[in-house]
Amino acid sequence: MTGTADKRRGFAELVHNRDFTLLWAGSLASQVGDHLNLMALTALIFTISGGEKTSGLEFSKILLLASAPVLFIGPISGVYADRISRRTLMIASDFIRAVLVAAIALVSRSMVMVYILIFLVFTINRFYLSAKSAALPQIVKRDNLMSANSLLNIAGVVAIIVGPAGGGLLVERFGFTVGFFADSATYVVSGIFVAFMTLRGISGVAAGREEELAARRRVVGEAARHALHAHSRVEFREDAVRIGHEIAAPIGEEVEVISSAYQRLVADLKDGIAQMKGHAIVIYSTVSLSSLMFVVGFVMVALPILVRNEFAMGPAQLGILLSLAGVGMLVGSVLVGHFFSRTPRRAIIAVSCFLCGAVIIGIAQSSTIILVSAGVLLMGVFVAPAMITCDTVVHETMPKESVGKAFGFRDMLSKAAFGIAGVLSGVIVDVIGPRYLLVAVGLVSMGYACISVFLLADTSRLNLLNAYPLLRVTARLAATLPRRMSYWIVVPLSDLAAYVLKTKRRYAQENAGHVLGKPPDSREAKVLARRMFRSYGRYYADFLGLGGRHRNSVSDRVRFRGLEHVQEALSAGKGVIFVSAHLGSWDMGGAAMADADGLPGLSAIVEPVSGDASDSAVSSLRKRGGVNVIRLGQTLKVWRALRRNEIVFVLGERLVGADGVDVEFFGKRTVLPRGAAYLALRSGAPIVPGFCIRRSDGSYELLIERPIETDAGDDFDAAVKTYTQRLAGIIERYIGRYPDQWCMLQPIWAP
């Protein structure tokens, strides 16, 4: 409540701050002018195309000319914003832009001159933006900077909503010439607002700079007066040289400062990249924002071409269409801030990119302008959360002293991506048409969203069962699709996972290398690791299919060999410890045993899945298969199941936690879980090893070994180790026989 009250007081204080109100009004007028300029340029392009189809190349040129100054003029504009009066720089920028934009209307017959003037307008615009950002701390208190930036951002959103719609209607009614003059007028209005501002707290450096310039002006003036009264050529030449030196000195200093600025820029970029390397999520957000801007760059060219050529829309309708994107961005900003502030950042970005891509494809398939408009609105809704989240990631993760460098590198990369997309799209859209281009861009956005889930992420603990939304969707598909079709789908997905999940791929290769007795980077180990991924994919297809119609076919798909060994072990009346491994489909084997006639209840000791929803869903799937779930650590439930002479199912070749025994496994020492041997020795229940192996025809065979009777003897710990080693040998034998069915993507041996 206190934070909200402080924010409200900050907003109220800013509203009553005369200078900030003038800056806000000037900023709004300037940004509305930017959008008026865009709509006037669009109308100009529509006009020069006549009745023919509009070329996308013309829009590409505009985007390139608008983006280029960010890369080349940005550092220089920042230097000047710190060296001369920011108020003067803003006023000069506004009036120069006003003149340049008005000049576009006068030279509109020559597109070469139009391009030159556009580049100059956006170049001067960089000086205005740098001066505005630098002037803000001289207008508001430090405590109000966040609120001030928020209000300035609102001005930008309002400009997006009002500018295109108003500009489109204006140029549609009166022509692009009036549009350019109206745009020029907005810059004049902005300059007038800024002229009435007062900047406070100018630093000593800036004050000293002003005194230095005044002193130089006095020297030049005195030298000029003396030269007028010179009595000889020598005196005149000496005075002329003095004047030349005084005039050239500031120019030389500015050249030196600009060179130094670029050197500092390069140094800051290198330092920023070095700082970002330690924060994978920041690099991810930078790549994601650049990818999103790359997509937006294509849309900004393809969309006007689509609505112009196929719906005969003029600038007015296009302006309203673009304004809908601003409305969507406003809605998206509110939604992400209010409802998703605690949602994982990576999830927001990935989902936003996916939905944005889906909407772009929807726009490409739209047959009416109403559907296109709805798509543009939704695109704004989905773009805003991704952009806001990318900003938030930098603020939350980077050290305070490196935030600016990270933003500088990120903005440069994203603007470059936007400009490159604008250039490419102009060429591509003229070849394949706007609809095909939008479909391709939408697919790229959706594809990136899928890959970005794993991009620069810690995949060592990643598991499909931990991702509830993905688990729910895949379970529904696996339960509905025919089993053979599920296999066709999971094989390429498994290969993709093997490529994307580098950490798990490394673990799989290391495990494969131990099984084969070859280096992890050998060809044989790599091939076996890929087969492990595919086996895991088939396991998921079968396990998730247990929740649907495939549940009824378990008994037909699994054949038993050695089921009498389980019945023999149960005859002692102490229950059975059934030990298996991550081989074939252990859940399918458990479901088959639970469904077999003449066997008691079966309980499986399982590792909890992270997330309550995911854990509940996985447990529900196992219960539908007839298997009772006992979570790791619930020892009392295990004792009760054994006393009821039931079967307790455990997996014995991967240690979870610290309760393990040092054994030899595939010729190398490692630690395996001691639970099976410990439970058997304490309860007197026999151990029965068994493994559910997949056959070439897609069926399964549950291979069950003879019972192992245990005896603690005089040394309980030694007995635990002995029986654990014996189980390790049995598991090793089966893995060695069916290595490609070993679904082990976690490290088993210490490096």
Describe the overall structure.
The chain has 751 residues and is an alpha/beta fold. The chain has 27 helices and 9 strands. The model is unreliable at 1-8, 202-208 and 464-469 (pLDDT under 50).
Strand content: 5-15%
Mean pLDDT: 77
- The tally of helices reads 27
Q: Largest sheet, order of strands side by side?
A: 1-9-8-2-5-3-4
Shape: elongated
Into which percent range does the helicity of residues fall? over 70%
What about the largest sheet?
Answer: 7 strands, mixed
Please give the radius of gyration in angstroms: 35 Å
Q: Please state the structural category.
A: alpha/beta
Q: What is the strand tally?
A: 9
Show unreliable segments: 1-8, 202-208, 464-469
- Distance from first to last alpha carbon: 52 Å
Please describe the structure with a list of short key phrases separated by commas or semicolons:
751 residues; alpha/beta; 7-stranded mixed beta sheet; two-stranded antiparallel ribbon; 9 strands; 72% helix
Question: Layout of helices and strands, plus pairs?
Answer:
Elements (H helix, E strand, L loop, with lengths): L1 H14 L2 H32 L6 H17 L1 H10 L2 H21 L4 H25 L9 H30 L1 H20 L8 H25 L4 H45 L2 H32 L3 H25 L5 H21 L3 H29 L5 H30 L1 H19 L15 H13 L2 H18 L1 H15 L6 H23 L8 H4 E4 L1 H8 L5 E5 L5 H10 L6 E5 L5 H13 L2 E5 L3 H9 L3 E5 L8 E6 L2 E6 L1 H9 L3 E8 L5 E5 L11 H22 L14
Parallel strand pairs: 1-9, 2-5, 2-8, 3-4, 3-5
Antiparallel strand pairs: 6-7, 8-9
